[in-house]
Amino acid sequence: MSFSTTPQLDRRIFRSCSPRHVSRARRGLVQGIARAAQLLRVTPTLLATRPGRYIFAYHRILTPDEASQEWCHPSIWISPETFEAQIAHLQKVGRIVSLQSLLEDTTTPGNRFAITFDDAWADNYRYALPVLEKNRIQACFFVPTQAVSTGELFWTERLALQLGHAASSGSAGALIDTLCIPGEQAIATSPAGMLALVLDCVERLKLLSDADRDAAIADIARTLKLGAGNTSGRVMSWDQIRELHRLGHEIGSHTRTHRILQGVDAETVDRELQDSKTEIEREIGASVRYFCYPNARYDQVSAARVTACGYERGFRMHNLRMDAASQPATVPRFSVAEVNGRIPLLDWRLAMSGTG
């Protein structure tokens, strides 16, 4: 079975964009770091030798079973138990402060941490909020407004769920034939391989133009006879977001449609930034000061529009400590997930990080 017969999309280009080799290298690096951390018996004293300001970036808070059922990328979920253990640990090796305090106070010594969440996932409200409230921590939640208003998922998560459900319901063979790069079909025969196949497909689609991506998704849906499925209920409601604001948490923007702001014209960027800012401010009755790039991807055009659209700061990822030289539109954060967030690996990552 061929990937597609859709004439307007060159499938050779699509297949050549596979990040599979990058994913393998990344997995090997993370595993190597974990082994090194265990061998060295890294302790909080290592982190104390290089204190800094760190902004943590979380996405989903899920149990391992839930993450499996959601076909969730390993880099964006952490278990409730690991999250709570991290919070307790950070309070031992430093101080957790609000994002505003971390940004404005550049002189207080020692390790300081701020907590942020991307995408307004409902599991943040269910699992993370009780931990934050118990520890009196003010976090920042970056909200993609269209998903909150409609209750529907972004195309990335929606497609991953649809493909995952197809694989689980007896269409695994067709999925492998349709999506696999030639010669790599055997990789996808295990559950882990099937997850990698689904996630690789989503990552490759991100590299296409809007028109080509829409054509490819429609092609995949026809070939695999994907059903729409029920993908609602996974994003917070405006009532829940208003409650977060009432409890003292910061609400920031994550664009309107969760569009990746790379290779996009300034007019489109402005619309994403301004419309989301206006909508959030109307819903919570307060100004929105902070913005976060979807998928942590940006370019010179989108970075230049952040402050122009009325935001004080824009946030990327890049796993760096913040310092005085950090640019207002590209403040670095630290990605935290189950695969890279356990102690002592977390201490090792923080202590070895650079600044930006």
Describe it for me?
The chain has 356 residues and is of the alpha/beta class. The chain has two domains: 11-25 and 154-224, no CATH class; 42-151 and 232-352, Alpha-Beta Barrel (TIM Barrel). It contains 15 helices and ten strands.
Brief description of this entry?
With 356 residues, this protein is an alpha/beta fold.
Summary keywords:
10 strands; 12% strand; 356 residues; alpha/beta; 50% helix; TIM Barrel
Shape by Cα distribution? globular
Helix and strand sequence: HHHEEHEHEHEHEHHHHHEHEHEEH
If classified by CATH, what would the architecture of the largest domain be? Alpha-Beta Barrel
Q: β content, as a range?
A: 5-15%
Number of helices: 15
Low-confidence stretches: 1-22
Question: How much is the average pLDDT?
Answer: 86
CATH class of the largest domain: Alpha Beta
The structural domain count equals 2
Radius of gyration, whole Å: 21 Å
| CATH level-four homologous superfamily name of the largest domain | Glycoside hydrolase/deacetylase
Describe the sheet with the most strands: 8 strands, parallel
Write the CATH fold name of the largest domain: TIM Barrel
What structural class do helix, strand and pairing data support? Answer: alpha/beta
Distance, first to last CA: 47 Å
Number of strands: 10
Classify the helix fraction into a percent range: 40-55%
